[in-house]
Design goal:
By secondary structure, the protein is of the alpha/beta class. Helix content is 36%, strand content 18%. It has helices at 16-29, 43-55, 81-85, 96-101, 106-118, 157-169, 186-190, 207-216; strands spanning 5-9, 36-41, 61-64, 90-93, 122-127, 140-143, 174-178, 197-200. An eight-stranded parallel barrel has the order 1-2-3-4-5-6-7-8. Strand 6 (140-143), helix 6 (157-169) and strand 7 (174-178) form a beta-alpha-beta unit. The longest helix is centred in the first third of the chain and has 14 residues, at 16-29. The structure holds phosphoenolpyruvate. The site of phosphoenolpyruvate has 13 residues, from strand 8.
């Protein structure tokens, strides 16, 4: 049986106090498992999250939700790949919220993937359909249709599987589904042959629901 990859996208949520509470509760709720779990937090939380996870001895890896398209230098407000690499091994790139709200183009996303690779960060690249451009250097692809993100209205596992089959045929290593995944529906996705895991937004914010989702996956 395959062991699914579970990626949490906390988006622009949680203060440091809330993260401390989340880790406390998750530690109480979670049970031993062989699943690969990655939490992608805001930049400001990466350092403390890393320390808290290590302190509690949790089997969780850390990711960022974005990175600068540029190296270090005169880019006020940006957080570059070398800085992220101090805390994380993964980075979400191409999330539809960034494409829509921050006008991220294919060219910018390509630069971001290059930066991630240059500093040994693994991109978790989001696509909105089979025709979304995927830059070279990407190995983990996440299908997240617009209508399913944060709506409580997931795509069908069959449709996600069809996209997954096409993506896998193109040679990508891992295919994830994201969009309104929770403890009730996660198994429908992770039991599909081409789906290697899930990207979870809302259901990852609550440690109890996240832990239930991991157990059910
Ligand atoms: C996401 O935005 O990456 C996501 C999957 O969100 P949700 O699970 O809340 O739909």
């Amino acid at each position: 049986m395959k062991s699914p990859l579970i990626v949490a996208n906390w988006k622009s949520n949680k203060t440091l106090e809330e993260v401390k509470e989340w880790v406390e509760k998750y530690t109480e709720e979670s049970s031993q498992n062989d699943k690969q779990i990655i939490i992608c937090s805001s930049f400001t939380l990466l350092s403390d999250l890393k320390n808290l996870i290590s302190h509690k001895n949790l089997k969780i890896e850390i990711g960022a939700q974005d990175l600068s398209a540029f190296d270090s230098g005169q880019y006020t407000g940006e957080v570059n790949a070398a800085q992220i690499k101090d805390f994380a091994n993964y980075v979400i790139i191409g999330h539809s919220e960034r494409r829509k709200n921050f006008n991220e183009t294919n060219q910018i996303l390509e630069q971001k993937v290059t930066m991630a690779r240059n500093y040994d960060l693994e991109p978790i690249f989001c696509i909105q359909g089979n025709d979304t451009y995927i830059p070279s250097g990407v190995e983990i692809v996440t299908y997240e249709p617009f209508f399913a993100i944060g709506t409580g209205n997931p795509d069908t596992p069959e449709n996600a599987e069809e996209i997954g089959g096409m993506i896998k045929k193109k040679g990508f290593r891992s295919f994830l589904y994201g969009g309104s995944v929770n403890s009730e529906n996660v198994k429908n996705f992770t039991s599909m042959p081409s789906i290697d895991g899930v990207l979870i937004g809302k259901a990852s914010l609550d440690p109890l629901e996240f832990s239930k989702t991991i157990n059910a996956s």
